[in-house]
Batch of 2 targets.
Target 1
Amino acid sequence: MKVELEKGVDIVSDLGGLTSIEEAKKLIESKCDDDNKKKFSTIKSEKAILKIGNAVALLQPDNIWINSSSEADLQNTRDRAIENGEEFKVVNGHTCHFDLPEDQGRLVTQTFYIVNDDEDISVLAKKEPRQVSYDTIKDGMTGAMKGRTMNINFWNRGPVGAKAAIPAIMITDSLYVVHSGNILYPTCYESFDAEVERAGTFFFNLHTYADLSSENIDKARIYMDRSWQTTYSMYCTYAGNTLMLKKGNHRFHVDDATYYRNFEQLSEHMFITGMTGPGGRKTFIAGAAPSGCGKTTTAMVGTDFIGDDLAQMWIEDDGTVRAVNPEIGIFGIVKDVNREGDPFLMKALRGDIEAEVIYSNVLITEDGTPRWEGDGDEPPKAGKNFQGEWFEGKTDKDGKPIPMSHPNSRCTLYGTSIDNYNAKLANDPAGVPVKVITYSGRDSDTMPPVWVAKNADEGVVIGASIQSAATATEVGAAGVRRQPWANQPFIPGPLADYMASQLKFFNSDKIKEKPIMAGLNYFLTVGARGGEAGSTKLLGEKRDVNPWLSWLERRANGDVKAIDTAIGYLPLYDDLKAIFKETINKEYSEELYNKHFSLYADNIIARIDLQTEAYQQEKDCPPVIFEIYSAQKKALEELKAKFGSVISPAQLIEVGSADA
Ligand code: SPV
Ligand code: MN
């Protein structure tokens, strides 16, 4: 069901109580010095002015600071973040910020969609009736900025002028949030009105850290009001909970693409990267993976890195699928980031090149060096982290060792600090043409490392079927869960609506060059593929990502044939052998290939059964998904009857074809 815009009470406007532009302007100006008054005069959108005025009336700051994103304002942000203690200096001119121990990831149980009566949302999301949210916001936000400065930021989700970009206003009292936003989003201060005009809308975000403390963590809330494209965040600082352009507005952007863009746009939890293929051609890949499953590392394997978290896609008039990254920086997990697996990122993080970096929730040693689990150096003996002093052997109250850094500790830096970032293309409103779409999860025992859908419907179903082990990005999450399109935490509406829009997009006649759609999985374990029972060692290495992406690059350009199987097209051994050698100089054995690409029919069938059952709970689910699941299951059962439950590539060729 289409989310109805401007339905119900707009909470901030109602609580602020201002109804005229004049009143709003007067109140805003009364909190501005001359410089800020002048900066604010650039903004003409009446809707924006009224809404900002109401935010001021609600939060009652002492004064207002307008972020024009000038060099002086960027420096002002850095300075004030240090002055107010939200950040402190570490080595290499970098800074560090600590979130509360309870606020180390997205607070999923305290995150809600504000809904009107009878509104459908995803069965996997939490909702709260508008009036309940209204009362909580009133309690938490009224006068919350007394004695503080309100910072007003005008940022864009995407390059200014891009078809799928939408401007946003972010209001916050946190300088850490402003500083992070400066690094992560292009400014649209100068072009705000024009962007509102072009996009037809803007997102509005309010954050206050309020009376922040561990004792008050129960008061933390992250609210998304879909009807008014407005977010409210309070009593927390973790960027995923507070820098609402990221996941808060991504959710609105998903609504926008799903319901309002004629099925010509998608808003995805995907990296974007380019691979250079034979003859120097460049092929762009957009890939979905759940939080904490290696999206950043995968993106940086490309020769032309564009983005590591989000993708706004659209069908261009020339029939290509194009994508922009709504961000210009990285808010990346540092756990296991080291020189071997992430050489470009490490150059920036370790000060080999000049870069502006904000660390969060890492360990800082006495000499100011940021340290984290898996950074590749000799572990430190002591330091301080978000829990205070840390020393080797420190245990919690249950006697469990406390790691030196949180598994979701992060680094925030500009894309331009990464050697293979293609800044020219990343900032181009025309986007990059996408020829490969990938979907991946943290799957230890079921799907092969790479397989390609035979058509758009099957491609959408690969995305619908992602399963993944929980990661540290969500507070309190555990177990293996469904992660449809790796976008599930950010899909506000029913999954059936989202699926229908994906099917319409990828089957559109307007697309002249259909991207290939593939599953990717580099989390298979030795134990699950006939090795030592229970071994969780990876069947392969982190650097194998490059050959998998390179094979897809070749496949998208028609250079390689494949095996036609029940689940899609699989690579041939000889092609992979050559690609492994060429890209990472690795001898790829046929034995390893057979482990990687044998189909484990029982596991795949179990997965199909689980997904079928889950989607049967969704109202109005497009029937094609059930048709595909049942056809795949039938084909796998036939294979199993003939060959047993593990079917080798040679056997797949025997019944299929190696010429697909
Ligand atoms: C993720 O968890 O997917 C992130 C970081 O990209 S957050 O901002 O928390 O969403
Ligand atoms: Mn993410």
Target 2
Amino acid sequence: MTSANIFTFLPLIAASLYTLLLVVSFVRRSQDEQQTRWFLLFLIASIVWEFLLFFETDLALPPNFPLKALLGGTLFLGMTTAVYVDWPKQKQWFLVGFAAILLAITADIFLPNQVLPIPIANATPTYHGVVSFLVWFLLTSFVFFKTWRDYRTTQFPWHANRLLFWAIGLFITFIGEAFHFFLWTGLTLTGQIIRFIGVLALAYAVTSYRIFDVRTRFQRGTAVFIITIISALPMLGAIWIVEQIGAVQNWETGSIILVTLLVIAIGFFLYQPFHKVVQRIINRYFIGEGFDTNQVLRNYSQATSRILDVNQLSLVILGTISELLETNHGTLLLITKEEEGWNVEVLPGIGQVPREAAFFNANSLFINALTQQHQPLLQYDLDFNRHYANLTDEERHWLKTMAMDVYVPITGGDDLEGLIAIGPKQSGIPYQPDELNLVQTLADQAVIALQNARLYSELEMQNEQINRLNIDLVDQNERLEIMDQVKSDFITIASHELRTPLTQVKGYADILAAMNDENILSQEQTREIVGHINRATTQLEGLISAMLDASQLDVDGMQLTFMESSVDTIVRLAADPLRNAIAERRIKFERVGLDGIPPLHADFKRMVQSFTNLLGNAIKYTPDHGTIRVSARMVPVQMGEPEHVEIVVADTGIGIDPKYHELIFEKFFRIGDPQLHSTGSTKFKGAGPGLGLPIAKGVIEAHHGRIWVESIGEDEKRLPGSEFHILLPLRPPEGRPSQYLPEKYKDHPAFAI
Ligand code: ADP
């Protein structure tokens, strides 16, 4: 050491300052442990670097040796940044940086003191010096620009602010380091000071999770600076003019001082109002116009007190907030406490807000914090404050999809009623404490309105439910009335239906007896009369067996004998007894796709009976020249479901009013006058006893199938037709409930409960 001046001791002073910083950072460490560890390593490297600088000449260290400590420091700072900014592939970056430093060391060893052919300025740079510089330059540029890019792409203002602050800290540190490469003492001193300021800023960022709002502070600082300068200008100008005039006019010094003092005195009085005007103008330009909080609150409370709808309330609250704070993204969340946690319902807000509801556990950190703290919670805190480190993955995921910046609790008593969620400001400037206070005030004012609106919407919902129940009751009542009518009609129908053939039997028997008494009975006549009697008894028999079948439905269901039966054969046999009627009435009978259906496992006779009933009805309710079409197709089913076939009996007849679609499957129900009778006739609109469909339904359901009708209504002129749909499992599943339906039919209106 030659001369012991301040510059010589500079590295020692810097080393002790870094040591101080090391101690403080260690004591105040509260953030991410890994990040703190890297940063402490960086500080240690800085201290080592300073010591090496100090002892460089004494110890006769190889040239550029201290630089290696600086490079090590840069690598550690890069890793601190990687953890701070949360880069992927951190290990890889470390290895790349490490390799670059090794390269610089290799250059030191293998290219000692080879001077570059071109001198830069007055210095004579060496090869290995240039390599070290390049490695430093690349490492620092990479770390800085990557941080800067992350800052530019971060959408949350507080997150961006944190990155901006870090980037500025890095920049100052690196600029300070850069000064060291110019080996001039003045620059080295400046470089040390600048670097220390940068490192100080980085230490602040590492040890405190919330960083002051850089942009706003800068704006306000600039504003204050400009205001002070502009406010002082007139006074300075006036003094200058006085001096000038004094000089030109050759005033005595005494009078110049006097006039100057006078100007200062006048300026003193004028300064205050002028300063205010300047302040207002500059603030408006820099910070934006302030809002009249009282006016806003007055309008807001007036608007919210009138609203009885939660959705509208959400829009008013968010409308006010967006007007005040210039955000275009936000909504109201309804919180409902349940036994096991909280239900969060997202109301329509402003901007694109996902409407997915969420459920949070009773011990949800997020909701509990909002309930207890009763103040706005920033997404930034949720991400960086250690208190929220244990948020569950579901909570984090939901928060991420919401993409909000602040959550403001609306609390009534001890309960959380809702949350106002607000997205980032359009300007990208973070929310300031006074703005957050204002939003909390708005939230507090909204409590009563929210409670009212919730009560009201609950009332409305109940009202709607009561209305629905009322409508159901009216429907049921109507149905009961009809069923009651059916019951009384039953006697009429049954007696009618039974009496007609019986009267015939009795009449012909009487004729037979009378003719026999008078001995005028020829063989031919006897055969004819007996034939009539036979037909009547057959009809009677059919009717009674239908009644028996129908009564069996109620008792213990049907005894079925299952066998492989082809749908085509069933339909053919069912149509057999109706062949004459079809021909007589000139009805077109079509069968479509029946032979492509695999055989059913079913009770053949019962199936034929059911289809005879359906076809008989189709003939009865279709005018002459109409068409009856029976079609079948396999129903696509999902994995694991039993295979089903759907058979449709469609006619071009008079159709059925939808209000009777269920009733026609009730025993003894028939549409129209119960006095009508034609006892099983196939004439157009020939009435029957009302047993055909109930029996068909009983049979189909005993096969675990379903039957329903589709028709747009009854109209004898336009003939809309009816379609009877039969859904049957190819093989009735054992032990499954008979209500079983393929997935595809779950929402079918015919099965609506
Ligand atoms: P019925 O013995 O009277 O035919 P059903 O139980 O077979 O008794 O039918 C009940 C009622 O359903 C019938 O009275 C008729 O009003 C109506 N109906 C049944 N099938 C049809 C159809 N294809 N077209 C129009 N109405 C029908």
